[in-house]
Amino acid sequence: MAQRLHLVFGGELEDPGGTKFRDVDDIHIVGIFPDYKTAYDAWKAEAQRTVDNAHMRYFIAHLHRLRDEAMPASPTEELEG
Description:
This protein is α+β, with helices and mostly antiparallel strands and 81 residues long. It has helices at 36-49, 75-80, and strands at 6-12, 28-33, 56-62.
């Protein structure tokens, strides 16, 4: 079975209803986790820790969805290889 990595990250947003970060240099990388359950637990802990800041948001990115090994390489990957 393929490994399903998840990235948890967050930071202050320009608008609490949007997804544009106020300062991308200040994004907090919580970590990369081997499964959704541990990523969710880390996300929840950070979200609860920053609950008083309405502009602070944390996200879970499904890294395993970014690359499908069955798909042919993108033109960029071909240049890197």
